[in-house]
Fold this sequence. Notes:
Blueprint: H1 3-6, E1 12-16, H2 21-25, E2 31-34, H3 39-45, E3 56-59, H4 70-78, E4 84-87, H5 90-98, E5 102-108, H6 112-125, E6 129-133, H7 139-147, E7 152-155, H8 161-169, E8 174-177
Parallel strand pairs: 1-2, 1-8, 2-3, 3-4, 4-5, 5-6, 6-7, 7-8
Amino acid sequence: MEIATLLKNNRLIAAAPPENLENALNSNVSFIILMNGTLSFFIDHFKDNEKLSKPLFIHTDLMKGLNNDKEAFRFLASTIKPAGIVTTKNHMIRAAKKENFLTIMRVFLIDTNSLKLAIRNIKENKPDAVEVMPGIAPQIVKILKKEIEQPIILGGLIWNEKQIEKALKAGADGVSMSKEGMWNSLY
């Protein structure tokens, strides 16, 4: 499975907290990034993750109860079995890849230096996709597309259809959003 393939049916991604997971599963999004949550929540709810109707990615930086190390990914691979992870941390991308998880590197672009650092980190760590924050900066997509080959997802501060359309028109491969009312749109 590749992230680009997941985004072919719909380029929208739900960024959902645990309490909105059921709504995300019943929406039209291509996959779900589970934000927040505790280790006990994941163990209680995902013992049989293969039966989920959509691929699940866990934002490991926001998960409580699990260290950010390679043992954490061995545990996730043997118990929860998500399709992949989202993280801002380079070492977590490398550790997750060793356990055959799909990886999304989340980068926050606030200035030219953060853009240069992000490009370097993406090239070094080779995540399967890159989520750029804030998503309301679609002009950055063209710059990144010239430098990296991974699918680009814009996320953060996406509140309406016009922003989604602008992001996709700029060349983004997908758009992630936590606004539940937007999850049933098709793009």
